[in-house]
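Shipment paperwork, digital attachment
Item: protein structure file
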Amino acid sequence: MSNSRISQPILTAEKLWPGGIPEFVRVHPTDDLIDGPEEWNWKNWTIECKGWCQFVEEEWVPMTDLNEEMRQRRKLIERWASADQAFRDSFHARSPERESALDYPAHLLSEEGLDEQPFVCLASVDKELYPDNYIRFVKNLILLYLHDNQGGGYHPMSRRDWKRDPSPTIPDILIDSSTTPDYIKFFSHHDLLINLYLHPADFRAVSMTRLGTVVFPHERSNSIYTVIDQDNLDLGRVAVMTFKPNGKIGEYANVFAWNFAWMDSYHYGLGWGYDLLFNGEDCNYATPYCNEPVKMDDPLMCIVDSLIQRRNLNSFGSRSEEWEDEIQRLAPGYLALEAQGREVEFDLADLWNEEGLCYNHYTLEQKKHYRETGSYFMPPRRFIPPSPKPVPATTLPPPSGALGMSFHQLFQDKLGVKADKK
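Attachment content:
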């Protein structure tokens, strides 16, 4: 990868199952258990997979080379998947109760836990080989910063582990398309769990049932994956999805950053499950009409202007110059490069990346006030009503009659106006 903030691909050559995953290694066909309980739950997964955990515990041979360990894990998966049912039942019968469906000996597992909020790119974005895609990729990542002051003012990727990845706003690249001839087959989000976890036989995520099928028992409705695939690269959004324990898609939506920010806030702040956030009935942030695509080959400020016109971006009303200043702050140098036709030279290392990724979109006036005072808070301006205009003295026409004349005289005296002498 030719960018200082793009990490090495997840699936290196060593992590790809040689010759492909064997056909007899099958993912469980449904999201329930054949001849078992109707629904998956933590207890039932543990019972259903305890024979496999016992098999691994008995058959594992300690090794020092990590690639050798990975090959051994694959061999164990192949043996369990191809064994007859009596063989698997024997391990199931003698296995003690397990704490989980991933209850392997501690030394089998990596000390590093799984990413709790995976962010993966399923498209070719190498700037040298696919410059147009790289430019779309950069603009897509910049749009993710425009949360429109929604959801508490956090970047959608703010909850990723900073210790694991110091650049959480940059997705992990699944596979290097420049070195993998059949890379395109890895770019389907439907196979994401198979590619992420089954190819490297990652026992942090992979277990097997007593029927010999593969499951991902920790997948549930409160684990979400964020994906930039080719379709969303072209349309300016990200795909957010959950998975079932058999690796099939649970909930799925294509969303903009500001809607994603609200979904994230409802999930972590109010405890809403993603099934409620995706259904379009309890909230509409994931619905298609709230996330209509944009033309990602247009200049970035043209894209922003179209979002303002559609009222997708509302923080600054119709003032696009405010958003232009925000983009200068969050992606310094990009707009200048774009104006010169050199946006492919933009380095992802220049994207704003302060730990916590919490920020507000302030107006130009607020930013000026901050530079002068160190605070964005601007006290409300005191309303001073206009001074009343003085009432000019007026000479009234004299009314007729003697009595009227006296009242007229009195009124003139009150106004300080001398009556005309006749």
